[in-house]
Amino acid sequence: MRLFWFVFLSGGVFFYFIDQAFKMDLFSKETLLNNMYHFFAGFIYLAWTLRLNLKNKLKLFFLLAAVILFIDEMYDYLRHFRTFTFIELFYNLYLLLWGALCGYVFMMRPKLKEKFSGQSKI
């Protein structure tokens, strides 16, 4: 669990600096919901595809990440919430990948416990 908190907090610090560099309004209702959507989409869905034993799982991961980003950017563009820029695409991609890394580390914990509990101590 320490590794999860390390990944989560270090990603949060880096996210804060990215947010300050791009001068995004972090605490508006719309931006907060959009950021949470990207983080938890990565945490739940994309991390789960990495955990499954599928062939070409990295290719599937990037395909799903591209689809999620494209759909969300088009939805924001059609609502006239934001204009489509590469800075916002990078910002959303970072949130998606940070969520996927946190989810993957979180899901690896039970698997590692299982692996080490079967070994006997000398």
- Please report which band the strand proportion falls in: under 5%, 5-15%, 15-25%, 25-35%, 35-45% or over 45%: under 5%
Major pleated sheet: none
End-to-end Cα distance: 25 Å
Number of strands: 0
The tally of structural domains comes to: 1
Low-confidence stretches: none
General description of the model:
This protein has 122 residues and is mainly alpha-helical. It has one domain. The protein has helices spanning 2-22, 29-51, 57-78, 86-117. α1 runs antiparallel to α4 (86-117), α2 (29-51) packs antiparallel against α3 (57-78) and α2 crosses α4 (86-117). The protein starts with a helix and ends in a 5-residue tail after the last helix.
Task: Walk me through the topology.
Elements: H1 2-22, H2 29-51, H3 57-78, H4 86-117
Helix pairs in contact: 1-4, 2-3, 2-4
Describe, in short, the structure shown.
The protein contains four helices and no strands. By secondary structure, the protein is mainly alpha-helical.
Primary descriptors:
about 120 residues, mainly alpha, 4 helices, globular
